[in-house]
Design brief:
Number of strands: 5
Shape: globular
CATH class: Alpha Beta
CATH architecture: 3-Layer(aba) Sandwich
Radius of gyration: 15 Å
Number of helices: 5
Helix content: 40-55%
Largest sheet: 5 strands, parallel
Low-confidence stretches: none
Order of helices and strands: EHEHEHEHEH
Distance between the termini: 24 Å
Strand order of the largest sheet: 2-1-4-3-5
Length: about 160
Amino acid sequence: MKIRIIQIGKTKDSYIEEGIMEFTKRLSPYVKLEIVTLKEVMATKAFTKEHCKEIEGEEILKLLGKSSEPEAIIALDEHGKEFTSMEFSKFLGKFFDLGERINFIIGGPYGLSENVRKKASLLCAFSKMTFTHQMIRIFLLEQIYRGVSIIKGKEYHNE
């Protein structure tokens, strides 16, 4: 299985970076994982938050659809579909079977542009609560690991 995570901005907190490294290591036997970090654009007098999302969105869209392989585009968005861990593992399992690459898109502090949201195959929400764009990185990797563990019959998920 191939997974690419496209995220905006560097991970600034060491505890989040440590978690990312841990789940990346755990996933390595099962998933070819690529994490692409794009530059964050901060709002100023010259750039509104909406303008920042548009600039970041253009950079995200440049990365999508360039592969000759089939791929899914999953944008993390607070208004998206919520999954249980079991439902998410079944969702991931479809891509294991098809051999498609999954692109997970994590926006910056202002979210995702409308163009990125429209390009996505699916909008996925982790909760009705709001999380920082950095914190959601470790949540996503943990849920991918949990989903792969369920698929592979590993003892990680207790259900």
